Amino acid sequence: MPRMNKMPPTQKAKNTKLALKNLMKYCRPHWLIIIIALIFAIGGAVLNIIGPDFVSKIADEIANTLGKIMATGTVIDIDLTFIWQIGLILIIFYVSGAILNLLDGLIMTQVTQRTTQRMRKDINHKINRLPLGYLDSHSYGDVLSRVTNDVDTIGQTLNNAITTLVTSIALFLGSIIMMFVTNWIMALTAIGASLIGGFIMMLIMAKSQKYFFAQQVSLGKLNGHIEEMYTGQNIVKVYNDERKSKETFDKHNKALYTSGWKSQFLSGLMMPLMQFVGNFGYIAVCVVGAALVLNGWTSFGVVSAFIIYVRLFTQPLSQMAQAFTSLQSTAAASERVFELLEEDELADESAKSLPTPEVKGAVEFRHVRFGYTPEQDIIHDFNLKVSPGQKVAIVGPTGAGKTTLVNLLMRFYEVKSGEILVDNIPIQDLTREQVHEMFGMVLQDTWLFEGTVADNVAYADPNISREQIVEACRTAGIDHFIRTLPNGYDTVIDENTSISAGQKQLITIARAMVQNHPMLILDEATSSVDTRTEIVIQQAMDKLTENRTSFVIAHRLSTIKNADIILVMQHGDIVECGTHEELIAKENGVYQTLYNSQFQQAEEN
Amino acid sequence: MSIFRNLTKVDYLVILLCIGLIFAQVWLDLKMPEYLNVVITAATSPGHSMAEIWSNGGLMLACAISSAILAVVTGFFVAQLATRFSKSLRSQVFSKVQSFSSEEINKFSTASLITRSTNDITQIQMTFAMGMQVLIKAPIMAIWAITKIVNTSWQWSLATGITVAIIAICVLVALFVTLPKFRRIQKQTDEVNNAMREDLRGVRVIRAYNAENFQEAKFNKVNDNLTRTNLFVNRVLSIMSPMMMLCMSGLTLAIYIIACYLFNSADLLGRGAIIGNMMEFTSYAIQVVMSFMMLIIVFIMLPRAITAGKRVSEVINTPLSIKDGTVTSSTERGTIEFKNVTFQYPHAEAALLKDINLKINQGETVAFIGSTGSGKSTIINLIPRFYDVTEGEVLVDGINVKDYTLHALHDKIGYVSQKAVLFNGTVRENIDFGEKTNHQIDDSQIMTAIEVAQASDFVNSKEEKLDAHIEQGGANLSGGQKQRISIARAIARDPEIYIFDDSFSALDYQTDQKLRAELRKHTKDATVIMVAQRIGTIKNADKIVVLENGEMVGVGTHQELLKTCPTYQEIALSQLSKEELENA
C-alpha cells in the first residue's frame, strides 16, 4: 500500500548515520525478532514476484488453445484442470504472502511501540539522574518535545521505514531479475520507461523544497502572531487593538496562502505523477510486448506477466523515496532523543556504604568553593559553623543566588573544592539519598502533583498514616480548608481544583512536617501570596523550625531578625555574615541598606 | 460539519469544476484498456498489422498524458481551494477568539486555542485537499468501471464488485474500530506530557524527598496506557496493506480463471475476443482497486481531521457571553459605580463577590486591597467587561457598561495588567498600541508617557530609542522594564479611567513611589483604580476598599481604616513596623 504523503520539509539530522546506528543499537533487544520480520517481508515479496510467472502460464494456455483453434479450425476447450492446478498454487502463494506480510507488520508494530515506550520510560528515568545543572540550563519545553514529538515521529516512521525499505528493495531487485530472466527486451523497455518517469518525479520533488520552506516560514510568522494575540487577549481588547491585530493577521494569513497553495499543489502532484509513471511503463510493455508477440518472438503469457512486473517494479520506486524521507525524520528525531539519553549522569554512588547517621544538626562549610560554570567561581572560600538547632537566614535581592547554598547543601550541585560536613561527616561521603533524608524542604515554587491531598502530603512514603497526615495539616493550619474540599483529604488536586498559592504553600509545609527530617530548608512565601496568608504560613514555618537546624531563604527582613546567623548575598556572592544586630551596625553595609529601604527588596533585575 | 459553511459560491463552482475534471480523468483512464484490447487482439489473432499496434499504443499514451495533465489541473484547483478554505477558516477562528471574553478563553485555555487556530486547521487543509481528489474519484471510478464490464460479462463484474465490497467493509470496520481510539491516544499523550512536566517542574522536591521511583511508577503507568492504545490502533492498521495486496492479486487471478470458463462456453467468434477482453477488464479491475487503496490513505488521515474539525467548530460555535451594546457617548466623565454587584464564576459553587456597592468620582484614586482570593482583581475586571456581573450593575459615567459598545467603553480605559504584556515590535509600537476614537498618539506624547512611567532611562540608553526592538513577550527586557513600558502604554492613551491590576509589585519601592507621584501630577482629572499588595503603594489613595472573601469590610483613607478596620490593621501590621504606622 502506498504510504501517506507526509508534509515535508523533513528535519535533517546532523549526523544521520550515527543517529541511525544509535537507534539500531537501541533496538538490540529486538534484533532476533526484527530479523525474523525482515525474513517474512522478503518472503512475502518473493512470493509476490513469482506470481506473474504462473499467471503467464494461464495466459499462455488461453493463447495457445486459441492458436490451435485458429490453426486447425476445430473447437478445442481449455484444460480447466490444468488452470485450477496453477490457480491453486497461486492462491497458496498469495495467501501465504499476505500472511507473511501481516506477520511482518504485526511484529514491526510491536517492536516500534515497545521501543518508543522504552524510550519515553528511559527519558523519564534519565531526568531523575541528570545533574540539576543540565535541567536548570535547558527549557522544559525542549525536554518535553523530545518525549512527545520526537518519540512520536520515531513511532510513526520507524515502523514503515524499515519494512517498506526492505520490501521495496526485495520487490525492486526481484522484479528486475525476473524480468530479465523472462525477456530482456521487455525488461529494458519496462525499466527504461519507469526510470524516465521516476526522473521527472525527482525533479519536481527537488523543485518543491523551496516552496515547502517558504510555507514553513509564513506558518511560523502566523503562529507567532496568533500566540501573541491570544496570550495578550485582555490587553488587545481593552486597547481596542482588534482591528489592527486582525490586519496583521490577515497579512500573514495571506502570505501563508500564497506559499501554502503552491506547496499543497506540489505535494498533491505526487499521486497523479506516480500514476502516470505506472501507466507509462504499462503502455510501453503492452505495445512493445504486442509487437514482439505479433512477430512471434515471445508469447502472450510473457506480456501478461510483464504487466504485473511493471507494477511491482514502479511501486517500490516511489515507496523507497518515501521510506528514505521518513528514515531522515527518524534519524533527526532519534538524534535529539539520544542526545538527551547520552547526557552525563550523576556520579554512581553504589560504592558508598556509610550507615545513615543519627543527625544532631551541626553543619559546617569548610573552604567551600563553587561556581555554576567551570570558568567562574561565585563562592570563593566560604567557611561557616552552624550549631545544632540554629536558624540560618539567607537574604539578598532577587537573583543574588540565595538558592546556591541550598543547592550545595542538598547536593543538587557539587562543590568545586572544600567540603560541607554534617555532624563532622562530609556529605560527599554519603549517598545523595542519605543527604536528602537529613533535610526537610519547603520551596517557594509550591509544587503539588496530580493526586489526592493526602498523597501530596504523605509524598512517596507509604508508611505515613492518615492520622499523621491530618496532624501535620492541623499544625500547618490547613486542616480546616482541606475539609471544605469536595472529598476532603481524598480530593484530587489537578488544574481545576481551586487552591490558592498560599494554600498550596501550606500543603507543602505539611508535607515537610510529616516527613520529620532532622534539618530544614525553607524558601519563604512568595510575592504572589498576600501578606495575611503569609503570616499564617510564617507561623506554620516557625513551628516547623522549632528545635531543628534550619536554613531559611528570607524575602522579608522582618521575619528573620531573630535568626542566629544571617548571610547576605549579592551577585551570587556571600558579602556579609552575622546576627541582625551586628549587620545593622555596619555603616553603608548591604544589609543596612536593604533594611532601611522599608523592608522592600528591589526586584529590579 | 459546520466548518464547511465557510465555502463560498465560487468555491462550490470550483468543486463542481473539479468533479467535472475528475469525470474526464476517469473517462480517459478507462479508455486506455479499450485500446489495450485492440492491441492485444491484434497481437494474438491472425490478420493484424504492426501499424494497428503502434497507432493504438499511441492513443493509449495520449490518454495517459491527458489524464495526467487533467490531474495536475485538478490538483491546482484543489490546492487553491483547500488553502483558501483553511485561510478563511483560520481568519474566522481568529476573529471569533478575538471576540471571546476571559470566560471563553479560560474554558478552552490559551494553549488549546492556539493549537486549534494553527495545527488543527493545517490538518483539515491537508485532508481536505487529499480527500477532494480521492474521495470523489474512487466511487466514480468504481461504478463506471464495473458498469463497463457488466456489458460484456456479469461474471467479471461480480468478481470486481465482491472485491470492492471486501475492501470497503475492511476499511469501514477499521475506521469504526480505530476512530474512538484516536481520541483516546490524544488524551493519553496529554497525560504522558503532564506526567513529564510534573517531573521537570518538581525535580528539586522529587530529589529532596527521594521520590524518584514513586514518580517513575506514575509515569510508567500513563506510558503503558498510551502504548497499549497505540499498539491496538497500529495492529488494526497493519492488516490493511497485506489485505489490499491479496485482494488485487486475487482479483487478477479470478478474472483469468473466469476468462477460461468464458472461453470454453463461447462460440468460435467469441473465443477470439476473450483474450483482449480479459486484459481490458483486468486493467479496469486494477484501476478500481487502486483508487480504493488511495481511499484508505484518506481514511487514515480522516480520524485526525475529523477530530480537528470538531475542535475548530467548537470554537466557532461557542456563543459569546459578552454582547456588544449600542451607546457610544456619555455626559459624565470618569465616574464608576458598583450597584449591588454579585459575581460568580460559571460552574463555581459560591459567589466570589457579594453585594458590592461603591461610587467612585472623577479624579479620585481608589485602591483595592485584600488577601489572595478576596476578589480584588475580579472587581476591577468587571469595569472593562472581561467578565460580566452575575447580579447588579456596573455603571461607567452613569451608564451601564453592558449598554456601551465595547469600543466606546474601552476608549475610556487605560488598563495595566499584573503581568506585563508586551508584543513583538518596537517600543513605539508597544506604547502606541491599539486604537482610541479621535485620539492620535505622536512621538512627543510617547516620550512624555515614557518619562511619567520612569522608563526614559533605559529607553534612552537604547541606540534606536523608540525604534528599539522588543521581542515576543518582552523577553529581552527585565520584569520591571516590561511593567514600566506597559504603564507608559496606558498613559499615552490619556484615558478617563486608569486601571492598575497590581501593576506596581514588579517595581522596586523607589520607582513605585516616584512613578505614582509623577502619574498623579500628569493625570489630574483622571480616575485611578488600583489593586495592590503593598500598603506603601496605596497609603495615599483617596479611598481604600478592603475586601475579604468577596465582601467589602472597610472603605476609607489609610488613617481611617487603621483605626476602624481590623482586617486592614492586620495587613498593615504584617508589612510595617509599629513606629512606621504611627509616624505615617
Explain what you see.
- The complex is a heterodimer of chains A (605) and B (584).
- Chain A is an alpha/beta fold and 605 residues long.
- Helices cover 62% and strands 10% of the residues of chain A.
- Chain A has three domains: 14-182 and 319-343, ABC transporter type 1, transmembrane domain (ABC transporter transmembrane region fold), CATH 1.20.1560.10; 184-297; 363-596, Rossmann fold.
- In chain A, the strands form three sheets. Chain A has a six-stranded mixed sheet with strand order 6-9-10-3-11-12. A four-stranded antiparallel sheet of chain A has the order 2-1-4-5, with no helix packed on it.
- The longest helix of chain A is centred in the middle third of the chain and has 53 residues, at 242-294.
- The radius of gyration of chain A is 37 Å and the shape is elongated.
- Chain B has two domains: 2-316, Up-down Bundle (ABC transporter transmembrane region fold), CATH 1.20.1560.10; 325-412 and 534-584, P-loop containing nucleotide triphosphate hydrolases (Rossmann fold).
- In chain B, α6 packs antiparallel against α8 (212-265) and α8 runs antiparallel to α9.
- Chain B is built from 20 helices and twelve strands.
Q: How much helical structure, as a percent, in the residues of chain B?
A: 55-70%
> What's the story with the biggest beta sheet of chain B?
6 strands, mixed
Mean pLDDT of chain A: 81
CATH class of the largest domain in chain B: Mainly Alpha
**Helix share bin of chain A:** 55-70%
- For the termini of chain B, the CA-CA separation is 66 Å
Q: Give the name of the CATH architecture of the largest domain in chain B.
A: Up-down Bundle
Q: What is the residue-mean pLDDT of chain B, rounded to a whole number?
A: 84
Rg over CA atoms of chain A: 37 Å
Secondary structure topology:
The complex is a heterodimer of chains A (605) and B (584).
Chain A: H1 16-26, H2 31-72, H3 80-127, H4 132-137, H5 140-182, H6 184-231, H7 233-238, H8 242-294, H9 300-341, E1 363-370, E2 379-386, E3 391-395, H10 403-409, E4 417-422, E5 425-426, H11 432-438, E6 439-442, E7 451-452, H12 453-458, H13 466-476, H14 479-484, E8 492-493, H15 501-515, E9 519-523, H16 531-545, E10 549-553, E11 565-570, E12 573-578, H17 580-584, H18 590-596
Parallel strand pairs in A: 3-10, 3-11, 6-9, 9-10
Antiparallel strand pairs in A: 1-2, 1-4, 4-5, 7-8, 11-12
Chain B: H1 9-44, H2 50-98, H3 102-108, H4 110-117, H5 119-150, H6 154-201, H7 203-208, H8 212-265, H9 268-316, E1 336-343, E2 353-360, E3 365-370, H10 376-381, E4 391-396, E5 399-400, H11 406-411, E6 413-416, E7 425-426, H12 427-431, H13 443-452, H14 456-460, E8 469-470, H15 479-492, E9 497-501, H16 509-522, E10 527-531, H17 535-538, E11 543-548, E12 551-556, H18 558-564, H19 566-575, H20 578-583
Parallel strand pairs in B: 3-10, 3-11, 6-9, 9-10
Antiparallel strand pairs in B: 1-2, 1-4, 4-5, 7-8, 11-12
